[in-house]
Amino acid sequence: MIHAESEQACPAVPLPASMSAVLAGYEWARDAIGESGGAVYRLHGKARAPDLYLKHGKDAVADDITDEMARLGWLAGHIPVPAVAHFVRTPGQAWLLMTAVHGRTAYQVLKSSPDAHPAVVDALAAFLRRLHAIPVGECPFNSDHAFRLARARTRIDAGLVDVDDFDEERDGWTAEQVWEALQRLLPFTPDPVVTHGDFSLDNLLIHQGEVAGCIDVGRVGIADRYQDIAILWNCLGEFGPSLQRRFLLQYGIADLDQRKLQFHLMLDELF
């Protein structure tokens, strides 16, 4: 679930008492890229014990981790996701311990195996169709664009948007410029489905040619389907327009809605 090249070995961190015994004997590695103020650890190397992943965060990050815990429990009845092994929440902190999903990220597979590109894209499209086919009436979580715009406005006002991480098309823009451009694309008629919210190549695990599961599900909820389509389409651009076209074809889109595509790409810049 973490790129091996981005990991750094680290000592065990202080844990709630209920987790300490469970994690005794594990070796620790931290995701060096980080998690927006939180931390992600891989626990490995314990004899006859599976690898585990631990997310820890404080304050607003703890709220995000709590959201992810709730969504993992619900999603487990619909698509493959990590199982929650243990969860602790205090007023200011959260710890989420999860099982590992077998496989490598879709990004790793595409980067290392050019011959596998068509099959990987087909598997990603099939998995997205499966996710979007979950009846919206069964989903208790809302992630529509009005909800996400409100959160984006809060992030802008708090100075939390990383403008240095904007896509090349918006290089040099301010967060306010992105916000103003978003407003010009409203209103639109949403096509609500159950969305992942960050359906990127790093959040999808491939094993034996199929999507073995998805991770980082804290944004899961009912939203316009282009929330997911736009992010995956954008990620595939690194590997050429032919893969972007193949994804749309396999998903079932004949005419790409450029208005929705641009809206969701710009909205994602603010998170």
Q: What would your notes on this structure say?
A:
- The protein has nine helices and eleven strands.
- The mean pLDDT is 94.
- α4 (117-132) runs parallel beside α8 and α7 crosses α9.
- The chain is globular, with a radius of gyration of 19 Å.
- The protein has two domains: 4-99, 2-Layer Sandwich (Phosphorylase Kinase, domain 1); 104-269, Aminoglycoside 3'-phosphotransferase, Chain: A, domain 2.
- The chain is α+β, with helices and mostly antiparallel strands and 271 residues long.
- The strands form three sheets. The protein has a six-stranded antiparallel sheet with strand order 1-2-3-4-6-5, sandwiched between helices.
- A hairpin with a 3-residue loop joins β5 and β6.
- The chain has helices at residues 17-23, 60-75, 106-112, 117-132, 145-157, 175-184, 226-236, 241-251, 258-269; strands at 7-10, 27-31, 39-44, 52-58, 84-89, 93-99, 104-105, 192-195, 204-207, 210-214, 221-224.
